[in-house]
Amino acid sequence: VKIVHKASEFRDHLWGVQKQGFAVGFVPTMGALHEGHLSLIRRSKAENAVTVVSVFVNPTQFGPNEDFDRYPRDLERDAKLALSEKADFLYAPESPEIYRSGFSTYIEETALSRVLCGAHRPGHFRGVLTVVFRLFNLVRPDRAYFGRKDAQQLRLIEKMAEDLGLDVEIAACPTVRDPDGLAMSSRNAYLVEEERAVAPRIYGALRAAEAAFDAGERRSDRLVDLARAVLAACPSFSVQYLELRTWRDLAEADVVSERSVLAVAGVLGKTRLIDNVILDPTR
Ligand code: AMP
Questions:
Q1: Of all atoms in ligand 1, which is nearest to the CA of residue 37?
Q2: Is 206 touching ligand 1 by the criterion CB < 6 Å?
Q3: What is the phi/psi pair of residue 23, to 5°?
Q4: Chain-centre distance of CA 200, in angstroms?
Q5: Cβ neighbours of residue 216 under 8 Å, at least 6 residues apart?
Q6: Between the CA of residue 127 and those of 55, 113, 130, what are the distances in Å?
Q7: Cβ atoms 276, 151 nearer than 8 A
Q8: Of 245, 240, 233, 234, which is closest to residue 266 (Cα–Cα)?
Q9: How many Å apart are CA 88 and CA 78, to the nearest integer?
């Protein structure tokens, strides 16, 4: 793996690869890499001739009272992990490469970004879509890999690519979990022992609903109630939302009749955690 700070250091190489008919895969991250990120890198490696992994803690997607300053950063460790997965480039841009001086143009989705996390983190998805768009323009990948763990983010990036006609294939990857079910996240590092011990309940709640869905339950309120009951037994997790929405439009529905997502967000101690399961009656 080659650590690069400027896109100009790999641009010609990637262009050469693409001119020969080979594909470039891209895995954007905020670093503090874990197995979830590595699964994306592996998939990109399997599907493309060259894989670029970016590490950029994007300031515009953090709210004023969020964890931008204390977000875990360890580029050396990230480089070792990227090397172990044989990524070709580890791209760690400095902020001015992404946001030039005087930067004032943002990408804003105006419907799906308003619900779920968007309702609790104003401006978050505007920051996410803007940085992803900038990174797409700097890397120019054929395929880009995103985790289902961040379900709304994934859907919004798909939507941006559809609406703006971006020439990149968005690949969705399954959520990687610790053995006890907790979805891996760089933010799990914030959890103290007692918090870490109860955190798997979040997925436990989603699983309870998923099991009922698999057994034939299709009423949204019933499914949400089942998950809510499990979370009620874990009062230290303060729920921000627990909602069942269609995947396509992130719309509410009384009955699950199309591919949908049961999504949860909340705060455990000082750490905001999210998770979700996909409920698909067509599968
Ligand atoms: P982040 O560094 O948290 O911004 O995440 C970078 C990418 O890794 C995003 O596409 C995430 O959805 C994905 N990701 C993060 N955690 C996981 C996980 N546990 N399983 C799968 N993908 C993940």
A1: 8
A2: no
A3: -100, 150
A4: 19
A5: none
A6: 15, 11, 5
A7: yes
A8: 240
A9: 13
Residues facing residue 267 across a β-bridge: 238, 272
Distance CA 13, CA 117 (A): 38
Is residue 244 within 8 Å of 262, Cβ to Cβ? yes
pTM over 0.85, yes/no: yes
- The span from the CA of 138 to the CA of 140, in Å, is 6
Give the active site residue among 13, 34, 37, 120: 37
Cβ burial 234-244 (10 Å sphere, 16+ → b, else e): beebebbebbb
State the pLDDT at residue 1: 84
**In the Cβ-directed half-sphere of 213, how many Cα atoms lie within 13 Å?**
28
- CA 187 to the chain's CA centroid: 12
pLDDT tier at 82 (50, 70, 90 boundaries)? Answer: very high
Assess whether the C-beta atom of 185 lies below 6 angstroms from ligand 1. yes
Alpha carbon of 20 to ligand 1 centroid (Å): 31
- Tens-place pLDDT, residues 18-77: 999 999 999 999 999 999 999 999 999 999 999 999 999 999 999 999 999 999 999 999
- Are the C-beta atoms of residues 202 and 232 closer than 8 Å to each other? no
CA distance 192 to 268: 10
Q: How many residues belong to the chain?
A: 283
For residue 14, give the amino acid letter: L
Task: Find all residues with CB under 8 Å of 71, minimum gap 6, and list them.
Answer: 30, 32, 57, 62, 186
> What whole-number distance in Å separates Cα of residue 247 and Cα of residue 227?
18
37 is catalytic: yes
Give CA–CA dist 5/55, Å, rounded.
10
